[in-house]
Design a protein that fits this description.
Length: 424
């Protein structure tokens, strides 16, 4: 069988499974999810054995230490996968939600209800725990999912998916086994083949770095939910509480610098810069954060003992994903908004201020998917938003935007009812 034939057959099976999923009740789905969670814990030794093969292969091919860390499935991460599935089972079923209702003068009663999207391809790197998260969310929302992890995690991903499918089939004979499938080949050519099948695949969600997302978007013939990068900002306003501003800025950068909701640029109003920046800069430097500032920031910190290099034009557009922070002093909330709308990636921004008018203006005029007031940027997260596990974060403006949970994995349909109504 050729690669084209193999991917077509896989997608056709997923399409058929998506139709069968519509017959399952909420109770059926929750029963399966809980069985999957129990089975992942029960089969932890087999999953770890598969993961050990991937870890050995990754080490042999020179996979970087951070990537090996993401690849590792220890007891805590396996327990986390099971816990995530149990949380999804407790969440309201998004399918069938009433979104709108109206009765027309003709007597036609219309209801708009949430429905599954259909077949969703998830493409991701390294982290095999995404297999359980993505499959669980897609299943609860009535979608068949085709999982394409990185080649370095192929054995882990296959093991997790196999355990989930077999567990669901044991407790629910009507469970369609092809609702959760892992692409069986590591051949990169499988991705464009799969994403050309517009008759069978409805949506693609890539999770990973900018290069992966751009490569997927460029080759896909089906819609892609994406965020290229997270250039997130913290703006300290003229009316900010200095202690609060320091804590929020520090947490936004240092808590987990390698994730997409970490702050990459700090903006400080000129009227409070002298009260905030020297102390904050020393604390950041002590945490091994490399600072890159504009000339006013350099001048302010001159003689403070904190090393800061001059930021280049490229720094304002950079997603460092590391202990690096660009810093700019500016004049007022208007300049902050202009800077963010020019250089931001549409991910997450926060304003620290005691001025409600400034906060309202900032949240209204900044064009990003999530905009906080006196909150660390690190809170842009599906679990923190009460969504349970997260399928990803979207910076698109059409369809899902921001953290994506169950509701964002649904579409809708219109249902019409009348008594022999005809149009004249």
């Amino acid at each position: 069988m050729s690669l084209t034939e193999e991917m077509t057959a896989l997608a056709k099976r997923a399409r058929l499974a998506s139709h069968r999923l519509t017959r399952l009740s909420t109770a059926d789905k929750n029963k399966c999810l809980l069985a999957m969670a129990d089975a992942i814990e029960l089969n932890a030794p087999a999953i770890q054995e598969a993961n050990a093969r991937d870890m050995a292969g990754g080490a042999a091919t020179g996979l970087a230490t951070p990537m090996l860390d993401r690849l590792l499935l220890d007891e805590a991460r396996i327990a986390g996968m099971a816990a995530g599935l149990r949380v999804v089972a407790t969440l309201p079923d998004p399918v069938g939600r009433l979104l709108d209702e109206r009765i027309r003068p003709s007597g036609l009663k219309l209801t708009k209800v949430a429905t599954p999207i259909g077949v969703i391809v998830i493409i991701y790197e390294s982290r095999p725990n995404v297999t359980a998260d993505a499959a669980g969310l897609c299943f609860k929302s009535g979608n068949a999912t085709i999982l394409r992890g990185g080649k370095e995690a192929i054995h882990s991903n296959q093991s997790i998916a196999k355990v989930m499918v077999e567990a669901a089939a044991k407790v629910l004979p009507a469970f369609p086994a092809d609702a959760i499938q892992v692409v069986p080949t590591t051949d990169r050519a499988a991705i464009p083949e799969l994403l050309s099948l517009t008759s069978h695949v409805d949506l693609c969600i890539p999770r990973g770095g900018e290069s992966l997302i751009r490569a997927v978007t460029e080759c896909s013939h089906v819609p892609v939910i994406k965020h290229y990068k997270g250039v997130c900002h913290v703006y300290i306003d003229a009316n900010a509480n200095a202690a609060m501003a320091e804590e929020i800025a520090f947490n936004s950068k240092v808590h987990r610098p390698g994730v997409c909701n970490a702050a990459e640029t700090l903006l400080v109003d000129t009227s409070v810069a002298i009260d905030v920046l020297p102390r904050l800069a020393k604390r950041l430097a002590k945490a091994n954060v490399e600072l890159r500032g504009d000339k006013p920031t350099q001048a302010l910190l001159d003689g403070s003992g904190v090393e800061i290099t001059l930021a280049s034009d490229a720094d304002w557009d950079e997603e460092y994903l590391d202990l690096v922070l660009s810093v700019k002093i500016l004049d007022g909330v208007g300049e902050a908004i202009e800077h963010i709308n020019t250089h931001g990636s549409g991910h997450t921004e926060t304003i620290v201020t005691g001025d409600s008018a400034a906060a309202k203006r900032f949240q209204t005029e900044v064009d990003s998917s999530t905009i906080f007031w006196n909150v660390s940027t690190r809170f842009t997260d599906g679990a923190e938003f009460g969504m349970g596990a997260e399928i990803g974060i979207s910076t698109d403006k059409i369809g899902a935007r921001g953290p994506m949970g169950l509701e964002e994995l649904t579409s809708y349909k219109w249902l019409g009812v009348a008594e022999g109504l005809i149009r004249k």
